Amino acid sequence: MKSITVHKKKCLKGEFYPPGDKSISHRTIMLGSIADGKTHLTNFCSGEDTLRTVQAFQSLGIKIERNGTEHTVWGKGLNGLQEPQNIIDAGNSGTTVRLITGLLSGQNFFSAITGDASLRSRPMKRITDPMRAMGAKIDGRGDGNFVPLSIRGGALSPIQYQLPVASAQVKSAILLGGLYADGITEITEPVPSRDHTERMLSSMGATIEREKTTVRIKGSPHLKPFSFRIPGDISSAAFLIVGAILLPGSHIVIRKVGVNLLRTGILEILKQMGANIEVINPEEECGELTADVVVKSSSLKGVNITGDIIPRTIDEIPVVAVAAAHAEGTTIIRNAKELRVKETDRIAAVVKGLKKFGVKVEELSDGMAITGQKELKGASVFSYGDHRIAMAFIIAGLTASEETTVVDTEPIETSFPQFMESLDSLLE
Length: 428
Ligand code: S3P
Known about the structure:
Largest sheet: 4 strands, mixed
CATH architecture of the largest domain: Alpha-beta prism
Bound molecules: shikimate-3-phosphate
Strand content: 25-35%
Helix content: 25-40%
Radius of gyration: 21 Å
């Protein structure tokens, strides 16, 4: 098992272009594959998760050419996918399995999909329930709650669906199914989640209507191919942002990072905690906003993190917890039960790890309470096979008084393979 050992560091300085956004990268392949013609992508996320999506669509008969972070997808239109010869393996990627299940539900063929041990334990009923309601025949362990799933798709019926939890993956799966439904499919979320699928579909010419937390899509569109520089991933940049805030004397500029408002909860929270963060040079491409984010080291104070902001920062909570461990006072994170069904139980993993760093932290059923302190002690901590836990603890290790070892760091490859290299290039 791979481990990474880090020591206390002075500061982070310089500028950095983050790798392409993982959520957006998955969607460009899926939607590019069913567009009418050639889609050209640059700054594609080079993690293993997005590679799983590329391989899945190759197995569905789509030609995808890869040249570093430049990808070309030869879309075959809404009905151009072919029955795969083998079981699709989504690896560790929840986004691959959940979104693709929506799309496969509308295909007139048989398919099956599975994943690694972590993915095999994550809940899928949230996807299989609505797709079955639309008419797809899906089976799987636990009455379709766990992969492997088998899918026999076909023409779907539109539904009106109320999501029990805010989830962009579930919303997107239903939207992708809705492309194959005869009529208007309507989805309502309790709280808004990331809207990359809606934005991309709309810029490709689909009829999408949005009203507060409801989105409607009309079936059978012709989707235009596109050319797109994928925005930098704010979820990857988040680790460097928190590192720069915590290490005194730091000053970094993160260039061309995605600042879609449904992803920038991390910036709002850190600013509220007292962080010196500035967002400059906004630009828009394919309906997505990017900007440069300037971060300087700052002293933080504890805050309450709850409610609508949770889905807008769901993947950044492990690293927010590391920031909170250095803030004056207590930070309380609530309404974040979804963290328990991510790549690992992120509430339990963060609480166990922070305790090893000597932090006073209490586990709550739907979050945690963290009391900040001046300095962390060195620790040996485990990632629990989760990329974001591994990277959050590496950042914590840069601030700790003694050596820190993070065990099982291989999963960093799933989203941000260049993480250590990027960090080293900025560390002084
Ligand atoms: C994602 C949505 C979120 C997020 C995940 C990526 C997406 O999951 O945690 O990393 O690309 O749609 P949920 O939809 O389950 O909240």
